[in-house]
Amino acid sequence: MSKIAIKIKSTGQIVQTDVGNLSMKVGDWLLVETPQCKEVAEVVDESRLKDSQVEKGDVKEEEIEVIRKLTEKDIAQRDDLKKIARNLILECQQKIDNHKLPMQLLDAELSFDEKKLTFYFTAEGRVDFRSLVSDLASTFKKLIRLQQVGARDEARFLGGFGRCGEKLCCRRFLKGDLDSVTLDMAQVQGLATMGSNRITGACGKLMCCLAYELKDYKEAAKKLPKIGDQIKTDKGLGIVISQNVLCGKVTVELEDKSRLEV
Predict the structure, then answer these.
(1) CA nearest neighbour of 110 among 79, 134, 133, 139
(2) Which of 29, 31, 166, 242 could pair with 251 in a Cys bridge, judged by C-beta atoms 3.0 to 4.6 Å apart?
(3) CA quadruple 116, 119, 123, 127: dihedral, nearest 10
């Protein structure tokens, strides 16, 4: 028996499960069975599986059964179910309006056996949607899951273009693989002083691409004097006040307050 980390599509939960003698690799799509329904999951890198996640949430490790890799027929069925689910968004939004809830729907999907219907939404804060769930369950005769998502996920659902002119990375290829993007990443790359509007994406959060080359920047920065170091130049001693990591240069302030790039 071998174990792999998988990401449940409808919940985003990453768990560990046995695959028996099946051969799997990262990126493979699987049909799995949980206590609730049959649904789709993706094989992900085990580094994304934290110890606390193995038995956290609605689905525990021993309760997941891997049925098979998705076949071409399965993929066609998955796409058909996606279309059916999206056709239910308007009716769901009408019910949200009837219940006077501050929610905005983004997307919907049906589980592989059509037992579970998941709606993804955004809201400013927490929403008490218990009465809405009962209403939806009564209408659609299915297990209802309402999944609130953040600003990054909202951008991924809606799509758009970044300042680079390309389609948003989260829409094209990112699958939630990146760790948190922090202001420190911008500082390492010398971008923090350019203003927040230059380093924020369409979602209003720091751009995911700040993490792409961070490792290379850190390695290159190790070869340069640190900011605050005193170094000797052709024009005398000076203090390093900034780094240009890409060019392998630093700016030095000399004793007479003049500046020099070396």
Answers:
(1) 79
(2) 242
(3) -30
Residues 8-38 as b/e (b if ≥16 CB within 10 A, e otherwise) read bbbbebbbbbebeeeeeeeebbbbbebebbb
The DSSP output letter for 226 is P
| Backbone phi, psi, residue 252, to 5° | -115, 135
Kindly give, in sequence order, each residue whose CB lies less than 8 Å from that of residue 55, ignoring residues fewer than 6 positions away: 61
Which letter does DSSP use for residue 194 in this model? G
pLDDT in tens, the chain (262 residues): 578 888 888 888 888 888 777 888 888 899 999 888 999 998 887 766 664 444 444 455 557 888 999 999 999 999 999 999 999 999 999 999 999 999 989 999 999 999 999 999 988 888 899 999 999 999 999 999 998 888 777 777 777 888 888 888 887 777 655 567 888 888 888 787 777 778 888 888 888 888 888 888 888 888 888 888 888 888 888 898 888 888 888 889 888 888 888 8
How many residues are recorded in the chain? 262
pTM for this predicted structure:
0.69
The answer to whether residues 32 and 65 touch, using CB atoms and an 8 Å cutoff, is yes
**What residue ranges define each of the domains in the chain, with the CATH number in brackets?**
2-70 (no CATH), 77-149 (3.30.300), 154-219 (no CATH), 223-261 (no CATH)
